[in-house]
UniProtKB/TrEMBL annotation:
Residue intervals of the Ionotropic glutamate receptor C-terminal domain: 467-808
Keywords attached to this entry: Glycoprotein, Ion channel, Ion transport, Ligand-gated ion channel, Membrane, Receptor, Signal, Transmembrane, Transmembrane helix, Transport
The protein's name in its UniProt record: Glutamate receptor
Localization per record: Membrane
One GO process term, biological-process aspect: cellular response to oxygen-containing compound
Summary of the function given for this chain in its UniProt record: Glutamate-gated receptor that probably acts as non-selective cation channel.
Lineage summary: Eukaryota, Viridiplantae, Streptophyta, Embryophyta, Tracheophyta
MF (Gene Ontology): ligand-gated monoatomic ion channel activity; signaling receptor activity
Annotated family: Belongs to the glutamate-gated ion channel (TC 1.A.10.1) family.
Residues annotated as transmembrane: 588-606, 648-674, 830-852
Record SMART domains: PBPe (SM00079)
Membrane-topology annotation of the record: Multi-pass membrane protein
A Pfam family that the UniProt record links to this protein: Lig_chan
Length: 907
């Protein structure tokens, strides 16, 4: 019985012993590290990780005595070798794998980590496509390029550049980083105009070839995203090609700051070739822990134990080792086991030294991965914790600028504050809106030593001037034409282009290239398409801004307001009860009527004292005065002028009446007898509903508008090439091989009607558009030319150019406002009116002078000595008018009587 009772007790003790044995801490924990030992990042990372391992093993509070063993393997910057080395390291039963630093190798090894459930923690693989959804066992302890490219886009937006050129390494790191930049720039309404990839193992000749390509492009803002290069060969290529002038902008991603941080502080001469370069450096807050580590690193450099300077990735590598150590310690404290089991998928797979069948799955890999993703502690690089997609919540970037062989920090960028001159105070997980207004950077020195912001692009240079296409018109050459003798491009549009170019604040080398044969007007849609297809850089001419063209190119501000109108034969002499008023314009009628009134008054003044016909009661005088004036028109006046001045005025007045009446008779005869032409068209609606033929100018958008927008059958549309064909087709009419009406743009129609009075515009323009110059999409020159055109309109130069070409015989718009083509204008008779007015005024002045002289003589003879001398002005005026009202003979008798009276008394 005792033996039977001892058996369960023995079993219980055996189970307790086995359980206690399983919970014992392992003596060694293996962690793998695959990276390139002899690289800019690898040299600092290797030493940093060795220091971290030493600190972990020397810290009794971490892993509780378990040795942290780091198994390193050199990938030698090769995806193939890195993958093999990773498999060999994993074969040694590592609980986690650090690295690789290359994004391309990280993509490959991540699949292995997924299969074996070994967490892969990278301190340098910044490819944004290394996502937790595709690679659930991948964790990044550095900032993703998604954030870095957002910082680059903010810098581009801050300086208001719209286009950049991207130079990048043609691998996963380069391509995916630039893809992230494309998305970031699109949010800022900017873009990458040209992408120039470099081979993975590029040399100086490869870089020179790529940079030479960029010289023919317009943008001058370069974003360079390549691997760190201890020789800075890229800048050697820039120097050789003389691409360090002030119109260039070089924006470097963090490979640049990593490279220069890796150099020894004693050697600063390398910065002399980097003047004006702007780059990003991962921002790591200054803490006591970081300063102590830097001091420790400097001592190693002094002892020549370390050949590299400490980079941000060296600090990330140090913290990565600590993240794994703390997580493994947490795993063991939670009762997790460091155990491995064979994978059924790899059974029977062997290859030389690499025994794939012996690769084992880490049993606690998923648990360790969860612990790693929940890390939250402060390391050398600051607070270390991760987003839900297992990206490090970084503290942002420094914006650095090389000035006079020194590295200057000109600002900071973080995901929650954007660009700022103050370092980020706290790391925030929640993204907040960053407005353009509160962005700021310190003054940057650009290539060439200038602090003024570069324009960021060049339109053209002397080696490759702008190719500006122009339509070689066969009709209406006033707008644009090619002189066959001098081979000069002339016309209203060309003069306007030259004037606008003078206002643009930079030189624009260009050459004109004709489009069309000159025998017929070319298709303007094809011309615009050639701009969009990069056959031409721009197009200058009478190009209408219509919807389908704006989808392909950018237009300037319209310099002419236009629209489609209908021109047809018109009836210039329609019967009317008031047709007798048509020979004179309103101004002419008004001046003529006023002249009759003036002549009536002046003749009355001149004849009142000497002519009995102009005397009598006031009513009779007024009737006589106006009847006399208007009767001169018909030569039926019975009153005769007596005074010399009155006859002089009447001679000139009758001559004026003779000319006016003759002209009126001729004009009225022309209006009543002109050959009448009429059209049943009253507007666009009646034109659509009719079945008549409609003419349009070759090359105009009127054809597509009538066909597509108004659904007029193409069989009704007749193409016409010249104003002469316009006139001929309209005169023949729709039933005789011609057209009933022509639809064309207003400027052409105005020019066509300049010397043709038998045709006119029916109704109002039924479309609204304008003419502008066409440029390639997003061309900065389109904006500057628009500004120049607005300035030309404001200072009156636009109107001067218009008058130069279209107002030699009077502006079309002024002629269109005339009510009748056969009307007589005041401008034709102003000289005669001036002569008559001058003679009338002279006669009136002579009369007044003589009358005033008589009145003064009369007052002296009949002055009363007893009357007061201070006679009021009103009394003088009344007395003067009474004197004028007296007949001339009576005044003469008074003067004669006064002369003879003293002689009689003396006898």
């Amino acid at each position: 019985m005792k033996l039977i009772g001892a058996v369960p007790l023995f079993v219980f003790i055996w189970v307790l012993q086995n359980r206690h044995g399983n919970c014992q801490m392992p003596n060694v924990v293996n962690v793998g590290a695959v990276f390139s030992f002899d690289s800019v990042i690898g040299r600092a990372a290797k030493t940093a990780m060795e220091l971290a391992v030493s600190d972990i093993n020397g810290d009794p509070s971490t892993l509780n005595g378990t040795k942290f063993n780091l198994v390193m393997a050199d990938s030698d910057c090769s995806v193939f070798k890195g993958s093999i080395e990773a498999l060999q390291v994993i074969e040694k039963q590592v609980v986690a794998l650090i690295g690789p630093q290359s994004s391309a190798i990280a993509h490959m090894i991540s699949f292995i980590a997924n299969g074996l459930q070994v967490p892969l923690i990278s301190y340098a693989a910044t490819d944004p496509t290394l996502s937790s959804l595709q690679f659930p066992f991948f964790l990044r302890t550095t900032q993703s390029d998604w954030y870095q490219m957002a910082a680059v886009a903010d810098i581009v937006c801050f300086y208001e550049w719209k286009e950049v050129i991207a130079i990048f390494l043609d691998d996963d790191y380069g391509r995916n980083g630039i893809a992230a930049l494309t998305d970031a720039l699109a949010k800022k309404m900017s873009k990458i105009s040209y992408k120039l990839p470099l081979p993975i193992n590029y040399n100086l000749s490869d870089m020179i070839y790529v940079l030479n390509q960029s010289k023919s492009f317009g943008p001058r803002v370069f974003v360079v995203h390549i691997n760190p290069d201890s020789q800075l060969r890229f800048f050697d290529a820039i120097q050789k090609l003389k691409m360090t002038r002030s119109d260039y902008v070089w924006l470097m991603t963090d490979w640049f700051s990593t490279t220069i941080d890796s150099f020894s502080p004693k050697n600063g001469s390398y910065l002399s070739t980097l003047e004006g370069v702007v780059g990003l450096r991962p921002y790591i807050p200054q803490t006591a822990q970081k300063r102590a580590f830097l001091s420790r690193w400097r001592k190693l450099q002094q002892n020549e134990s370390v050949r590299s300077g400490l980079t941000a990735y060296g600090l990330y590598a140090y913290d990565t080792v600590w993240v794994i150590a703390r997580s493994v310690d947490n795993l063991l404290q939670q009762g997790g086991n460091v155990s491995f089991s064979l994978s059924s998928m790899l059974n029977g797979t062997t290859s030389g030294k690499l025994q794939l069948g012996k690769l084992k799955v880490f049993d606690s890999g998923e648990l360790l991965m969860n612990i790693l993703s929940q890390t939250n502690f402060t390391g050398l690089t600051g607070k270390i914790h991760f987003t839900p997609d297992r990206n490090l919540i970084g503290s942002g970037y420094e914006v650095i600028n090389i000035v006079q062989q020194e590295i200057h920090t000109v600002g900071y960028w973080s995901n929650f504050s954007g660009l700022s001159i103050s370092p980020p105070k706290a790391v925030k997980n929640k993204e907040t809106a960053v407005t353009r207004i509160n962005q700021n950077l310190k003054i940057v020195t650009w290539p060439g030593g200038k602090s003024e912001k570069p324009r960021g692009w060049v339109i053209a240079n002397d080696e490759r001037p702008l190719r500006i296409g122009f339509p070689r018109r066969a009709s209406f050459p006033e707008f644009v034409t090619l002189n066959n003798d001098s081979h000069q491009v002339l016309g209203y549009c060309i003069d306007l282009f030259f004037e606008a170019r003078k206002i643009v604040p930079y030189d624009v080398p260009f050459r004109f290239e004709p489009f069309g044969t000159g025998l017929a007007n070319p298709s303007y849609d094809e011309l615009v398409t050639m701009v969009a297809d990069d056959v031409f850089d721009a197009a200058v001419g009478d190009i209408a801004i219509v919807t389908n063209r704006t989808r392909m190119v950018d237009f300037t501000q319209p310099y002419v307001s236009t629209g489609l109108v209908i021109v047809a034969p018109i009836d210039n002499s329609e019967s009317s009860a008031w047709v007798f008023l048509k020979p004179f314009t309103l101004e002419m009628w008004g001046v003529t009527a006023l002249s009759f009134l003036i002549i009536a008054v002046v003749i009355w003044i001149l004849e009142h004292r000497v002519n009995d016909d102009f005397r009598g009661p006031p009513k009779r005088q007024i009737i006589t005065m106006f009847l006399f004036s208007f009767s001169t028109l018909f030569k039926t006046n019975q009153e005769n002028t007596v005074s010399t001045l009155g006859r002089m005025v009447m001679v000139v007045w009758l001559f004026l009446l003779l000319v006016i009446t003759s002209s009126y008779t001729a004009s009225l005869t022309s209006i009543l007898t002109v050959q009448q032409l009429s059209s049943p068209i009253t507007g666009i609606e009646s034109l659509i509903t009719s079945s008549s033929f409609i003419g349009y100018q070759v090359g105009s958008f009127a054809y597509s508008y009538l066909r597509d927008n108004l659904n007029i059958s193409p069989s009704r549309l007749i193409s016409l090439r010249s104003p002469e064909e316009f006139e001929s087709a309209l005169r023949r009419g729709s039933g005789s091989g011609g057209v009933m009406a022509i639809v064309d743009e207003l400027p052409y129609v105005e020019l066509f009607l300049q010397n043709r009075t038998d045709f006119g515009i029916i109704g109002r323009p039924f479309t609204k558009s304008g003419w502008g110059f066409a440029f390639k999409k997003d061309s900065p020159l389109a904006t500057d030319m628009s500004t120049a055109i607005l300035k030309l309109a404001e200072n009156g130069k636009l109107q001067e150019i218009h008058k130069k070409w279209f107002c030699k015989l009077g502006c079309p718009a002024d002629r269109r406002r005339d009510s009748e083509p056969n009307q007589l204008h005041l401008s034709s008779f102003w000289a005669l009116y001036l002569l008559s007015g001058a003679v009338t005024l002279l006669a009136l002045l002579v009369f007044l002078f003589r009358t005033i002289h008589q009145y003064m003589r009369y007052k002296r003879k009949h002055a009363d000595p007893s009357s007061p001398s201070n006679t009021r002005c009103s009394q003088v005026i009344y007395s003067f008018f009474d004197f004028i009202d007296e007949k001339e003979e009576a005044i003469k008798r008074i003067f004669a009587h006064d002369t003879s009276q003293p002689q009689t008394s003396g006898a």
